[in-house]
Amino acid sequence: YKFYNRGISKYLSWISKIQVNHPAVLRRAEQIQARRPVKKEWQAAWLLKAVTFIDLTTLSGDDTSSNIQRLCYKAKYPIREDLLKALNMHDKGITTAAVCVYPARVCDAVKALKAVGCNIPVASVATGFPAGQTHLKTRLEEIRLAVEDGATEIDVVINRTLVLTGQWEALYGEIRQFRKACGEAHLKTILATGELGSLTNVYKASMIAMMAGSDFIKTSTGKETVNATFPVAIVMLRAIRDFFWKTGNKIGFKPAGGIRSAKDSLAWLSLVKEELGDEWLKPELFRIGASTLLSDIERQIYHHVTGRYAAYHDLPMS
């Protein structure tokens, strides 16, 4: 799906004419939120499925090698062993989809996962996360260093200025360079949708990111005031669908920021299932960026198995 620069202008003129029907998007979002969630064993099954989509994340200023170690152990053993045995799922190899850390912590994460015998990917944020307001040369070097340290997925942030000022060709050019710097690593492009100004801009930025070679498009950094919301997700999912119809290429989707409860995760799974179908419900094409979500999922599974809610000391720290 390489849209070379000489052919890009044709697609840019098509993209510039796009308008998103805002009221229709909001109506669709309300439908999703009004759904009754699944219950009992069906809920437990969907929650275990949700665990396998989580990019278990820590992006704090006080991250140290010891809490990266704990994060990696939790990624390998996301749900307590006895709870999985009660559900007869202890031998299914349930882990999170990846761990996501700052570039300086990639070495720690690679080492910690190796120590627990786990081969899940290490994702690193890059390109001046979360604001993306550093020189392009620095942003590209950050990607290269993270890949050298062992990151196999790179979550880049786009330069929001280019979207807000309508510089679509420049945005395409930057993401192409990110793609090249990633080499074999997967490129996940964070649109920071809360800062793009309109749903129409969200659609256009999604399209440009996919045309430039992103493997995933991601809603937010988790550091904005508005993060993953259903209206934004609907627009991004429709862009993924349109791109698939035009090119035959499947691009992944990753909501991130503010997804904290098990109930939220079920709503996101059902949205992706309805908009893109079951083939997108696999870690290669769907991720959830979260740090506290896993604890709540484990609490709900504990409740399903034992009939009571866990006390704080019943479940291991994540």
Automatic annotation (TrEMBL):
Q: Where in the cell is it found?
A: Cytoplasmic granule; Nucleus
The record's listing under InterPro entries reads: Aldolase_TIM (IPR013785), DeoC (IPR011343), DeoC/FbaB/LacD_aldolase (IPR002915)
Sorted keywords for this record are:
Cytoplasm, Lyase, Nucleus, Schiff base
Keyword Signal on this protein? no
Q: Which Pfam families match?
A: DeoC
- What GO molecular function terms would the record report? deoxyribose-phosphate aldolase activity
The record lists the catalysed reaction(s) as: 2-deoxy-D-ribose 5-phosphate = D-glyceraldehyde 3-phosphate + acetaldehyde
In terms of SUPFAM superfamilies, this protein maps to: Aldolase (SSF51569)
GO terms for biological process?
carbohydrate catabolic process; deoxyribonucleotide catabolic process; deoxyribose phosphate catabolic process
Q: Copy the pathway line from the protein's UniProt record.
A: Carbohydrate degradation; 2-deoxy-D-ribose 1-phosphate degradation; D-glyceraldehyde 3-phosphate and acetaldehyde from 2-deoxy-alpha-D-ribose 1-phosphate: step 2/2
GO CC annotations, alphabetized: cytoplasm; nucleus
Decide whether keyword Lyase is in the record. yes
Mostly located where?
Answer: cytoplasm
**Catalytic residues as annotated in Swiss-Prot or TrEMBL:** 218, 254
* Catalytic EC class: lyase
Q: Give EC number(s), comma-separated.
A: 4.1.2.4
Q: Report the function annotation for this chain.
A: Catalyzes a reversible aldol reaction between acetaldehyde and D-glyceraldehyde 3-phosphate to generate 2-deoxy-D-ribose 5-phosphate. Participates in stress granule (SG) assembly. May allow ATP production from extracellular deoxyinosine in conditions of energy deprivation.
Question: What does the subunit comment say?
Answer: Interacts with YBX1.
Q: Which family does it belong to?
A: Belongs to the DeoC/FbaB aldolase family. DeoC type 2 subfamily.
From the Swiss-Prot or TrEMBL record, give the protein name: Deoxyribose-phosphate aldolase
Q: Organism source for this protein?
A: Propithecus coquereli (Coquerel's sifaka)
What gene name is given for the protein in this entry? DERA
